[in-house]
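so my prof wants the structure for this chain in the tokens format not the other one, which i didnt know existed until like an hour ago. anyway here's the sequence
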Amino acid sequence: MKQLFVPVISCSEAIRDVYIIWVEAPQIADKALPGQFVTVRCGEEILLRRPLSIHKVQGDYLAFLFAVVGEGTEWLSLRSKGDFIDLLGPLGNGFKINDDTSRLLVVAGGIGIAPLVHLAERAGADGHSVKMILGVATASQLCHEVKGVEMFPITEDGSAGDMGVATDLLPSLVGWADQIFACGPVPMYRSMAGMMPEFRDKPVQILLEEVMGCGVGACRGCAVPTRQGMKMVCQDGPVFDLREIIWEEMGMPR
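here's what i got, hopefully its the right format
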């Protein structure tokens, strides 16, 4: 884990209110695993750092895909080439591909695609077969092309691909997969948890995107209920086994 001041290479709007920012950070790029994240200091006026999943790695360069949802991400969206930003990372535990896995099914709900592209592209480069379900609200949000990955788009309004949500396509593809990986909102995970009989004994790893105070496990602000007690998303995750989380307690006061 390193704290670095790194140069911005580019920052552009990928779709409405969703940006992709590229930075040069060889010290992080060299070590970053799919599923890990960094925290970013977003200006002098904002106290808490913002967590960002690592979206892509190309040589010495990192990309982060993020939605503008508040002051911090708005500040980040206004960066341009030549600016410097303060990063801390890589943080957390990444996805794990088992030695006997050859086929990966990746399930992305909306902006949940952010950490899954790094996983899918690296797995494909290593010779694995990868299929990705991408569920979004409407066709205008389907701007992502993932190298070497077979895509299955689904939209809530039916404007592209099938009509529905990401988990609607799971039953037809789960039999093909050796492992399943997902990132999306908690309701998507709850729906997946209800599909346990269909998964049988296949490993299902999910990435939680909780609000974080410190990003290093000190503040306990990102605690989630698991079958082994409360765990910190920033330190114990953000990747967990789907079966490990007590989903009926997620979102309840702690």
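also thought this was worth mentioning. The radius of gyration is 18 Å.
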